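Page 47, continued from p. 46.
Same chain as before, 440 aa.
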Amino acid sequence: MTHVSLLALLPSGATATVATGPYATPAAPDLAAYVLSHERFDAAENAPSARKDYKNVHVADVMTDEYVFPLGDTGKSIVLSGYQIAAGFLAERAADEWLELARQQHAANGGADNDGTRHVPDPAEADQLMDRALESAERILAPFEATAVVSLFETHYRGAREFLRLSWEGLPEDLVPKSRRPAVALKAAADLEPASSTKDYDPYGLDGKSDYDVDKPLAYREKTGEKIGPFLLTMTYRHEYPQVDDERLGTAFAVFHEAATDIVAAAVELKLVKVPPIQSSADLVYVLDTYSGEMLSLALAATEALGAERLCSVFNTHRVVYISTWEVRKAWRGQGLGVALLREALERLPADPDGRPDALCVAPEPYQTEMRYLSQLPPVLRGEIDAPAHRLTRHLTEWLDRANLPNVKTHFFIPMAKHEGIGSAGENARLIDRIMESEA
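Result:
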């Protein structure tokens, strides 16, 4: 196999995309997490020594540190820099991919796996592999060298997508308040409607009320002496399965636009979850798995947070309002705008037809932490990465204690990030199996 270059399989440059497949191009967080999974070595003390904190530690500091690198199962180890360990990671990945390609080509040419053929790359390329891998690692990490290492493992608003804009575009046209529809569509609708018709779509059926106060500036004072506003509130609600008249799952969108610029300042997406009577966590898993991967993750995370007995009590007697996505733009963070919007959304939710009170369900982790790397990171760094989630939990708990929301009778926090995004596969599948077995 001489026409496939081993060196060509090394990543050619930096990427911010998180690697997913076995041969996907690694991003800076992949390399940094792999390096940090090794024991740090202090040359001055000539012994392993972990950092005491990572508050002012940049990516360049981590990559120039030295680490203890074990030599397979020999019980021996050597000391390498972070860059060298990252280069070894890339080299091993490239070699594995090259071997897989070699085997595929051999099979395509009629060869068999057990015919004794040895697949060997070009010797000149093999000699250069580590040097070129080191260059590749440096290129991937170069844009982030001056970045705080903690920030590599933070989730930035689901990949910086503006979920609300996408949500409006994905909604049926009659669910979008007219003042938020494109100007062309507004003009076309106005040409078709009688001049006296001013009523907009109102899924709450509140005759005589305005369209969610869309055009009314709202000013908020979250704390004494701290003014927020003015903002325009837009909100809409829909059943996920209206074609079968199923009101068990609904989605509410609420957003604050800055009144002067119409820029989105804060947005929240709420999932309204109501289940038939359940007797066990297995029942909840079964019911919510029929809706979506996110709902399955919610069932698993709620099981972990509440335990089987309280889980059944909460879901049988409440409509669970889960904060699916919640974001405040950087310019307005720390001003109480997020909870102000959450309050407005909760107060405007349609009442449950069966009269159930609401249980607010909050998962703080997905919006602060990229969980997939946590098991590889040093405990001190894990604690620092978890700090924003703990702060948010404390802040929301204190706010809910004094918020006096009439229909929200209880609240609970769930470790959603441990289960989110992997559906019925991997660790979720094993957890589902354990739940089903324990409650069979």
